[in-house]
Write a structure and sequence with these properties.
By secondary structure, this protein is α/β, with parallel strands linked by helices. Helix content is 37%, strand content 9%. Helix 2 packs antiparallel against helix 3. This is Methyltransferase.
Amino acid sequence: MTGLNLWESDELTDEQLRDIVTKLEQDFPEIADGLRHVLRHGGKPAALAATIPALFSEDAYDFWRNMGVHIEETGDYYSPIPQIDTLDTDLWDGPSEIFADMEIDASSQLTRFSEFESQYKEEYDQFPIVPPSEEYDGYYSRNLFFETIDAEIAYSIVRDRSPNRIIEIGGGYSTKVIEAAREQNETDSEHIVIDPFPSRRLEGISSVSILEMKVQDIPLDFFKSLREDDILFIDSTHVVKIGSDVVYEYLEVLPRLEDGVLVHLHDVFLPYEYPETWIKDWRLFFNEQYLLYGLMLGNSRYEVLWTSYFMHRDYSDRLAKAIENYGELRHAYDLNPHGLPSSFWLQVRRRSAE
C-alpha cells in the first residue's frame, strides 16, 4: 500500500492507484469507486479526500491505517496524544513538581564527573564536532541524536568500568562512542546491538554483533546474563503503549537485572518535563520518563549515577570547562534543541546495600 506522503503530493502512479482500488474493493467500495473515477478522468489523487466523506468516517479507520496514518478525535480523553493548546505553559518554567521526590544527588554526580575529567578528558576531547570524521567509526558531536555530554559520559563510563558485555537496544552514534572506549580498554568484551531496523550508521562496525529483531522477542535470560559493571544501553521508541518495547524493558527486563548492572536510558529529562519544542513543534509525544519515575519512586534498588539534562540545565558552566565540544555547542541548544543532552544512567544496587 502506498504511503500518505505520495497521496498528498500527487505522486501516485496509475498502477499504484489500481493496487489501492483492489485492496479497498471489499471493505470500502465507495472509496474504491471514487478512486476509479480518478483513474478514468485523470484527476489528482490528493483532491479526492475533499470529495468523499467516507474517507473521514469512523469506518474508514482501516483505510487510513493502511495509508500510514491514524485518525482520531482531537481532545479525546482516552487518547495518549495531548491536546497541545490546553497545556499549561508553567510546565516548562523549571523542574516539575511532579518529580519533586526524585533522588538526584548533584554532589555525587559532580564528583564522578571530576574523576572522569581527570582520567579521560584528553581522550574524549578528540571527538570532532562536525563531519567528516575518519576516526571513531565516523562519530562527530553535532549529529542531532547522541551529542556532547552524553557521548563523553558514555565513553568515560565504558572506560572506567570496562564491562565484559554491553547490550545496546537501538544502535547508532552511541554505538560508535562505545566502540571507541572499548578499543581503548583493549579487553576481550562483547557488544551486541538489538535493533529491528538497524541504522546505516552501524555499517562497517565489524566489532559489534547485530540482532535484527524486536527486543520483545529476546528471552529474558539473555538480559539476566549481564553481570556487575556490564551495561544495558537503552535508546528505543520512548513510548509506553500496549505491546511496546518500552513496556517490556521496564516491566520485564529491568526488574530482573543482576546486582551491579549499569543501565543507560536516553531522551530522559527528569526532573524536568519533555522540552516544549519537542511537544508543540515536533509533535514527539514521548512518555517513557514517566514510567521511569514510577519505577524509581520509593525503590532503593536503583542508584542514579548521571542525569545529563539536569546537569546541562543546572551546572552548564562546570560542564563547559571540562568538555570542549560542550563549551562550543551548549548555547546552540537554545536555538535548536536537536541532540539535547539527555542520557540517564542508573546502577542496580547490590541487595546487601539496600
